[in-house]
Amino acid sequence: MKHLKIDNLHVSIGDREILRGLSLDLPTGQVHAIMGPNGSGKSTLAKVIAGHPDYTVTSGDVLFDGESILEMEPDVRARKGIFLAFQYPSEIPGVTIANFLRAALQARLPEGEELEATEYYAKLYEKMDLLEMPRTFTSRPVNEGFSGGEKKRCEILQMAMLQPTFALLDETDSGLDIDALKIVSHGVNSLRGPDTGMLVITHYQRLLDYIVPDVVHVMVNGRIVESGTKELALKLEAEGYDWANEPEAEAVGA
Amino acid sequence: MNMATAPVSGVPLIEGALVEGHWPEWFVASRQRGWEDFQKLPAPAAKDEKWRFSNVRALSLDAFRYPGAVADAAALTARSTGLGESAARFVFGNNRLLSATAPAADLVAAGLVIMTLEEAATKHADLVQKHFMAQEAKLGSAKYAALHRSGPINGVFIRVPKNLEVAQPIEIFHWVEGESSAVFPHTLVVCERHSKATVVDCFRSADGAPAFACGVNDLVVEEGAKLNYVAVQQWSPSSVAFHLNSTIVGRDASCLGMQVNLGGKFVRNENYSRMVSEGARSDMLSVNIASDEQMIDQRTFQDHAKPNATSDLLYQNALTGKGRTVFSGVIRVEPGAHKTDAYQKVRNIVLSDDAEANSMPGLEIEADDVRCTHGATTAQIDDRELFYLEARGIRPDAARQLLVMGFFNTVLDRLPDARLRGHIEGLVEARLTSALRS
Ligand SMILES: Nc1ncnc2c1ncn2[C@@H]1O[C@H](COP(=O)(O)OP(=O)(O)OP(=O)(O)O)[C@@H](O)[C@H]1O
Ligand SMILES: [Mg+2]
Q1: Which of A99, A151, A187, B216 is most buried (CB neighbours < 10 A)?
Q2: Is B390 helix (H, G, I), strand (E, B) or coil?
Q3: How much of chain A exceeds pLDDT 90, in percent?
Q4: Helices and strands in chain B, H and E counts
Q5: What tens digit of pLDDT does each residue of A4-31 get?
Q6: Residue A203: is it exposed, middle or buried by C-beta count within 10 angstroms (0-12/13-18/19+)?
Q7: A147 CB-contact burial (10 Å; exposed 0-12 / middle 13-18 / buried 19+)
Q8: Domain range holding B259?
Q9: Which of B392, B397, B400 to mutate against chain A (most A CBs within 10 Å)?
Q10: pLDDT value of position A252
Q11: Which DSSP string do the residues of B61-123 spell out, in sequence order?
Q12: What is the DSSP letter of B25?
């Protein structure tokens, strides 16, 4: 079992502190959900773990199986096994999905070794079928002109191809219609297993009916204020976050 | 075939050419006129609008010479690898024919003519005389067009007869070899009514020596015909090169021309397209990489003489190091050329602080009811896109390369032939790899 451990993490952008002492332990084999109001810092957490250059970690640590990854470049982290499904995926003009994923897989091979094209396409088609994506997508530029739902599907396709150890899914359910939600959830579930840990950021308990989490965390104002079982998500759905916004609200372990 | 007779070498350019081979009288006279014009015409001045932002000091020709024959014709022929399969392949080195693979017998029987310009100047004197440099060089390099005319020109004459479709591309290689050698490649293509062909010119240096190339191509596309023409310029990084183009597009005919500049130190392209009849279409495309201290200077002219014609220009530059590019383009719509549809776009991606891209789009419209758009953009690599690629494990160098190739794909996608596209893409990608490292 491997662990992705966030240890008392403080993160700022400019003068503003966004993550204010956040701790979390995600082991492989588990799915953790994070819910929290807009602006509470969920995407910031995901991007900091992935190595986004805009954010400054002022204290605390992010440990991949005991090793700090904060000094590592984003591409190094990714090759180690971290994957971020973006809330707002970028459009990459002129770079087709096929070329893009080939480059990503090629980067994981030892120097001098070439990706085997037939195997690559077989795997790509298999994953596209799983996500019910038409094959014509392979020759389309990444995310360019994609609908909101297609972008999210494309993120999960990438995850399926790259098979990360720890996947951070940032609002992958937003923009999906109910059929797409089922398909994408099915895709995500097929990647669950003893060697993969997932952190699922969402606003909707609905997603958690499909991707059933082991732990639900509530994040407010840059901190985890409560963690619990999936019933916690139902409570949030019913009551909102008001109860957690109390200035004295304490972090309570599950 | 008329081959070189007395090798001439070491004669400085500025003393005028002594020419080998057997050329008809009209051609010799034209050469003489070229030499006189070259001497008469003033050298470009920095303040001349047609040379704005250029580097006229790069144009000293004192050091260059008419070269002798290449050392090893067979070796250069062997290095002339391109598309693999082609309808015909001609290889020239230092202005001399090194080898020729003639088209298949059925194409010849159907009337396809592909031969050296030297041979064609006699055998197809009418056609060659009619079209050879028939358009005046209007975009600033008349002096160098005259020099070309005066020089030991060599190259290919292609006549695609009426209704013939040549499926495979015709490949032409021009090599330059040796210190300060000067070459004068010329390609003259006449696509007769409703014919189709693809012609690829490959300009290469046999070594890293500084060279001077003064090339011209004349493309004539008659009614209903379709011509694709690609020039891939890979002269050595210390070379000075001109490539002056004139394209004439007839009724319902179309020409797709693409300039790919990967080499040279100072490169000047002038691309002139004239829509002489209704329904004509010219696609003017270019992919350029300027690195180190390279300057790529391009002037274009979309000349709409008749109504209902289309021209669509897309030039894209990637700049690194102290690379510089100049784009100056004019869309001209002559009186009466109503319903013209003309589009002109230059896009630059600047990858270093010291690189400089200059863009000067322009319009001269003397007709009503026309649709003309032009624009120039200059951007850097988008940090969000770069992070997106890195977040997938792609190393920063490879990510940058992928993004710039993505940028170029917009142009490369316009090539109609997948094999040709793949070939050009490979050359661009290899050049980009070295440019990003330097
Ligand atoms: N690059 C940035 N520049 C300035 N402010 C930022 C930046 N990134 C995040 N912030 C701010 O940090 C706070 C947290 O943003 P974040 O995107 O992490 O929230 P979130 O919890 O993901 O919200 P949502 O549920 O709306 O997606 C917000 O107030 C946001 O404006
Ligand atoms: Mg967010």
Answers
A1: B216
A2: helix
A3: 83
A4: 9, 22
A5: 999 999 999 999 999 999 999 999 999 9
A6: middle
A7: exposed
A8: 13-381
A9: B392
A10: 46
A11: -TT-EE----S-HHHHHHH--SSS--SEEEEEETTEEEEEEPPPHHHHHTT-EEEEHHHHHHH
A12: H
Residue type for B198, please? T
Most B-contacting residue of A95, A99, A143, A155 (CB-CB within 10 A), to test interface:
A95
DSSP letter string, chain A: --EEEEEEEEEEETTEEEEEEEEEEEETT-EEEEE--TTSSHHHHHHHHHT-TT-EEEEEEEEETTEE-TTS-HHHHHHHTEEEE-SSPPP-TT-BHHHHHHHHHHTTSPTT----HHHHHHHHHHHHHHTT--GGGGGSBTTTT--HHHHHHHHHHHHHHH--SEEEEESTTTT--HHHHHHHHHHHHHH-BTTBEEEEE-S-HHHHHHS--SEEEEEETTEEEEEE-THHHHHHHHHTTGGGG-TT---B--
Confidence category of residue B9, pLDDT binned at 50, 70, 90: low
What torsion do the CA atoms of A17, A18, A20, A26 make, to the nearest 10 degrees?
A: -150
The atom of ligand 1 lying closest to the CA of A40 is 21
How confident is residue B5, by pLDDT bands cut at 50, 70 and 90? very low
Give me A223's structure tokens.
């901190």
CB contact under 8 Å between A78 and B402, yes or no, is: no
Q: Which of B25-34, B153-162, B216-225, B329-338 has the lowest mean pLDDT?
A: B25-34
**φ and ψ at residue A225, rounded to 5 degrees:** -100, -20
Asked if B409 and A94 come within 8 Å (Cβ–Cβ), the reply is yes
Joined together, the tokens standing for residue B73 give: 């014709």
**Domain boundaries A3-88+164-253, corresponding CATH code:** 3.40.50.300
Return the domain boundaries, chain A. 3-88+164-253
Higher pLDDT, B2 or B273: B273
Is B188:B217 a contact under the CB 8 Å cutoff?
yes
Starting at the edge strand found earlier in the chain, the sheet holding A67-68 runs: A16-27, A3-13, A56-64, A67-68
Domain count, chain B: 1
What is the Å distance from ligand 2's center to A217 Cα? 15
Residue B354 phi, psi (nearest 5): -90, -5
Out of A92, A141, A162, the one facing B393 most closely (by C-beta) is: A162
What residues of chain B, 333 to 392, have a C-beta less than 8 Å from chain A? Answer: 382-385, 387-392
The β-bridge partners of B203 are B174, B233
Residue B21 banded pLDDT, cuts 50, 70, 90 = confident
Nearest to B35 by CA among B7, B56, B14: B14
* Pocket of ligand 1, beta carbon within 6 A: A 13, 18, 36, 38-44, 54, 87
